[in-house]
Amino acid sequence: MKHLIDIHDLSVEEIDSLIKTANDIIAHPDRYSEKCRGKKLASLFFEPSTRTRLSFEAAMYELGGNVLGFSEAMSSSAAKGESVADTAKTVSCYADIIAMRHPKEGAPMVAAMNASVPVINAGDGGHNHPTQTLADLLTIHREKGGLGNITIGFCGDLMFGRTVHSLISALSRYPGVKTVLISPVELKLPSYVKKDILAKNGIPYVQTTDLDEVISSLDILYMTRVQRERFFSEEEYLRLKDSYILTPEKLKNARSDLSVMHPLPRVNEISVAIDDDPRACYFKQVLNGKYMRMALILDLLGL
Ligand code: CP
To answer: How many angstroms separate the alpha carbon of residue 99 from the centre of ligand 1?
Structure first.
């Protein structure tokens, strides 16, 4: 039985296959509308979500299946002290596949060790978010025609941004990837990601605090939100939250074929004036996330 806890649970070949399936779903949605008839997805969200939860639910409905679950810990028996392990064993009695978001790093892994159905990590604390990475990879593939030979800038909260950690990890397996790490000093990419992923795989990186200095060198600019929920001090969050705000003025120096990505939700880091710019890809990412989750559900269920 397969689970998806970390993006490295998927080989490069498996990611290629998911991208191929997602593109086929986009081209021929009717061929997939009955694939999950009679199957149920349990959507266990112990932490807030709009895109991930609703796109998993939309994905399962568009495959002809059904969905059950909860959208906050307080409406589950976790509020009475039930463990993640017991929750996973219980939900395995009701559903064919589980998508779990949890504020604690490693919780979906514990669920996978105890469930008798496939478990998908839908985001665990500041750790990983592999299905956002699948959405990001499909977006890069569709915008750039492949996943190698790109210069990608990650901008904002690189310390707590789990989508950044997962995407860097995924891209480290493709040739010709260069990374530019743009963040305040306090929110730099954790050293374990630099050492264990970038350095280990020979991925060149530049670190800077200045977006203007590097924007013209980028094929992709991956903006991120400063993660308020992971800060210990509200004062520190308020000081750092508007470190980077992408405006039409700043984009003047960028390439005409730049792709601006963001996992969303956005707070203040991309001006809404950019939404109609052809370089803005973040709402395409949202839609691509649904297609990749459809492809993933089919793969994990062996359909
Ligand atoms: N990108 C993302 O994970 O969004 P949600 O928190 O709304 O699911």
So the answer is: 13
Q: Which residues have CB under 6 Å of ligand 1?
A: 49-52, 123, 129, 132, 263-265
Please report whether residue 265 resides in a domain: yes
Q: pLDDT tens digits for the chain (303 residues)? A: 899 999 999 999 999 999 999 999 999 999 999 999 999 999 999 999 999 999 999 999 999 999 999 999 999 999 999 999 999 999 999 999 999 999 999 999 999 999 999 999 999 987 889 999 999 999 999 999 999 999 999 999 999 888 999 999 999 999 999 999 999 998 999 999 999 999 999 999 999 999 999 999 999 999 999 877 766 788 887 887 888 999 999 999 999 999 999 999 999 999 999 999 999 999 999 999 999 999 999 999 999
Which structural domain, as residue segments, surrounds residue 217?
Answer: 130-286
**Residue 267 identity (one-letter amino acid):** V
Q: Whose CA is nearest to atom 6 of ligand 1?
A: 49
Taking residue 187's Cβ as centre, other Cβ atoms within 10 Å add up to 20
Do 251 and 171 share a domain, yes or no?
Answer: yes
pTM of the model: 0.95
233/157 same-domain check: yes
Residue 276 alpha carbon to ligand 1 centre in Å: 21
The domain that holds 121 is classified in CATH as: 3.40.50.1370
